[in-house]
Design the sequence.
């Protein structure tokens, strides 16, 4: 019996990462990760050639057998057809309305039926549901907290982009309060000091009461954001990833206390797979038992 293996690919505005995934053990295959910077402002030819180069290199470790690819890609994108709809985001402008699936199929000599796309936020959560912190859970919310707010939902084992970043929240939208820039701005408002990001605040949280206040306020804001979503979708687990997740211990007490104060016992977990989540989630799209 041939081992069920697929290539997981994670595409961002500045990079491509690819790795072979053993779909049986739900793990990355040893030494198979390939990564390269890619300038998303480049021409169609430069971008697609760079992607194909990494995909080819990653497949070299597989040997013979059918080549299946799952690609986690930022939106807007027609994921079923493989057509890029990105045009106003300062990235991948050269790919607007290009059928990326057909382009990759021709260049890599892989049938289009063997190339699958998933939203990058959904790919992160799909990975955690397939092989990580949310394995076996039916209704899960995934949040990637960093420079922006990524969000995805898995309802009845189906994962999709939730696009909650611009939902109305407090005096603006969710991303105004649940991203790195909020930490920087709020700490400056309270202390008059300037920090580059959340990492610097974690380093001083034990000794600087303003930093402590910022993390407590963030935990409270995150709970307020989560309460209606958890109620609406009957979420049993929330998975948190992204750079801000590394400061979880600083904001978790206030987050969990506020949720419990509102009668919510939903589990809050940190991503287990971290940067590998989208790779494993994308590759899992090639598992015929899941489709």
Sequence:
């Amino acid at each position: 019996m041939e081992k069920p293996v697929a290539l997981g690919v994670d595409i961002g505005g500045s990079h491509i990462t690819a790795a072979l995934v053993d779909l049986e053990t739900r793990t990355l295959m040893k030494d198979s990760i390939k990564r390269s910077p890619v300038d998303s402002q480049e021409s169609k030819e430069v971008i697609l050639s760079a992607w194909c180069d990494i995909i080819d290199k990653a497949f070299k470790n597989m040997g013979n057998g059918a080549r299946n690819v799952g690609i986690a890609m930022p939106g807007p994108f027609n994921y079923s057809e493989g057509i890029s709809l990105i045009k106003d985001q300062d990235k991948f402008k050269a790919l607007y309305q290009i059928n990326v699936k057909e382009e990759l199929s021709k260049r890599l000599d892989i049938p289009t039926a063997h190339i699958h796309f998933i939203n990058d936020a959904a790919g992160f959560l799909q990975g955690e549901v397939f092989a990580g912190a949310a394995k076996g859970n039916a209704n899960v919310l995934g949040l990637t907290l960093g420079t922006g707010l990524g969000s995805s939902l898995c309802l009845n084992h189906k994962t999709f982009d939730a696009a909650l970043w611009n939902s109305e929240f407090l005096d603006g939208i969710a991303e105004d309060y649940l991203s790195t820039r909020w930490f920087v701005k709020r700490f400056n408002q309270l202390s008059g000091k300037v920090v580059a990001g959340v990492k610097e605040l974690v380093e001083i949280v034990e000794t600087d009461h303003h930093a402590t206040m910022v993390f407590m306020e963030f935990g409270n804001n995150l709970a307020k954001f989560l309460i209606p979503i958890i109620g609406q979708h009957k979420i049993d687990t929330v998975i948190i990833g992204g750079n801000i997740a590394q400061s979880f211990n600083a904001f978790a007490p206030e987050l969990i206390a506020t949720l419990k104060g509102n009668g919510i016992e939903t589990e809050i977990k940190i991503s287990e797979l971290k940067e590998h989540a989208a790779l494993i989630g994308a590759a899992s799209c090639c598992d015929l038992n899941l489709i």
